[in-house]
Amino acid sequence: MIEQLFEFATNHFILVSLFVFLLVAFFINEGKQGGSAITPSNLVNLVNRQGAVVLDIRESKEFGNGHIAGATSMPYAVVDSRMGELESFKDKPIVLVCKMGQHAGAVGRKLKAQGFEDVRRLSGGMAEWSASGMPVVKS
Question: What is the spatial distance between Cα 90 and Cα 117, in angstroms, rounded to a whole number?
Fold first, then answer.
């Protein structure tokens, strides 16, 4: 099977190269549509300097087990119904935080569709935040 894959790739180099290029372009485009990814240290700077709003979209139980100080809990499942609560933050950067970064892009696209211009995602989510040794508040 692997031998056939390599044979196909060598016989159709241009086709395989084009596929890889389009795949990479797709993932880059999808990532940017949901907001640019930022590191935990960039998040701290953004909150301190520009008053960014941290929106934690994990489930309430996960939020209670540990979250970023000052974060607002709005579980992924209820973002659509609670979108109005965010209207007062349209002029501030919004940083989306989820468990590992898997849902933040979808919520980011929804926020951008509602007119929020400065939407960003915490790269790696809370897993990256904790791995970086950043403080976590438990409630």
Answer: 7
d(CA 105, CA 120): 9
Q: What is the DSSP letter of 78?
A: G
Task: Say which of 98, 104, 107, 126 is annotated catalytic.
Answer: 98
Q: Which fold has domain 34-131?
A: Oxidized Rhodanese; domain 1 (3.40.250)
Residue found by looking up tokens 């044979």 in the block: 7
Q: Give the pLDDT of the chain (139 residues) as one tens digit per residue.
A: 889 988 998 999 999 999 999 888 877 766 565 678 899 999 999 999 999 999 999 999 999 999 999 999 999 999 999 999 999 999 899 999 999 877 888 899 899 989 998 999 998 999 999 999 999 999 7
Tell me, rounded to whole angstroms, the distance of Cα 31 from its chain centroid: 8
CB contact at 8 A, 129 and 122: yes
Q: Could you tell me which residues are beta bridge partners of residue 119?
A: 94
Q: Are 100 and 18 in contact (CB under 8 A)?
A: no
Catalytic-residue membership of 98 = yes
- List residues bridging with 95 in a β-sheet: 54, 120
